[in-house]
Amino acid sequence: MFETLKNAFKTKEIRVKIFLTLLLVVVYRIGCYIPVPTLDTQAVQSIFSSSVDFFGVLGMITGGSMANATLFALGILPFINSFIIMQLLTLVIPALERMSKEGEEGRKKITQITRIVAIVLAVIQAIGIVVTLNNGNAIRPIFAYEEGSETAPILTLAITIVIMVAGSTMVMWLSERITEYGIGNGTSIIIFIGILSSAGTSIANALKQVGNEWTYIWNIIGYILVVVAILTFIVFIDGSERRITVQYSKQIKGNKMYGGQSTYIPIRVNGSGVMPIIFASSLLMFPQMIIQLFFSNTSAASWYAQYMGSNTPVYYVLLALLILGFSYFYAQIQFNPEDVSKNIQQYGGFIPGIRAGKPTSDFLRKINNRITLFGAVFLMIIALVPTFIFLALSGSYSGYDLGLANSFSATGLLIVVSVALELNKQLESQIMMKHYKGFLK
Hints:
By secondary structure, the protein is mostly helical. 69% of the residues lie in helices and 5% in strands.
């Protein structure tokens, strides 16, 4: 990776893209420190310290922007949810499916629809968060005639919602500019920066809490070693794949002979990436979010938090089952055995020992299902095991809390590795293309 960065900075075009990406990231991070005038920062932080997973994920992805009541409090999350919804709708709505196959014009239309859906989701999410913050007296009146009221009037609430939605729209615009003019996918980079900044802040706060209790330093060292080990494991699995050999028969067309070579179909162990964890976590967080936003002081909320809330056995079992289900669902989207079999047969290829046609598609489906199972088990391990290790090292089971458990989550670790590897691949491909252009000239 360091050699790739060194070669990238030697090329002017790539160097300019890197600097533009860094500039846009700096603009994003500046927005993460601009306070919203209607929010009481201390009150918001106290709500976040006792909140459930929904606000925890918001805080991690936004780099602490939500907990600090800043302009980019919603971050890129509405756009991510909109993108996931549009992906699912494209599979079930024929009009969207046709639009996705219309080339560049179709993709532009879907992108525009995704933006509109993202703004709608941002409005809904902002309303829910503002209602919660208002119930916790975290919103302060900003007009003179509103002072003295127990809760913030409608005008202050409306202004807060507008500011949050505007901040989320600005983040969406920045991510698209990074994708267009910079290096890599803008949405992934913004999430990547938010997770790293949250982790850095948590580790710095943990070091401050150590004080004279130097025995706690071993918890921090152990935490860092576990993170490095998990990252190494993720990188190893991310590069693992099953290669299915495909042999192409020789064909004579005119005076030339084609084919005769051997290639392979790569099927990745973790081809679905982090998406099954995001889908599963989002589905489990949705009822928690609704209950916390609108029914926080009811007996139903207490029952749900005690028996089905986060950190309960039922929650972890459901999370594992949903990860398994979404892994197979996403694998079916990415890899279609029938289409692959038809393409192989069309170009005169075959898998050694397997007949062409349906036997080939059945063989590919069987292999894909087995590999998907290994990938799902890997995601289950990454989603569940580090949680308990981080809680133990953070001291949550021992009467003290260094705050390390919230530095990284399983999803966060997987996103960090995926984005870093994707950035490296992007730089390598652009360097290679630049060399090819120079050779052609």
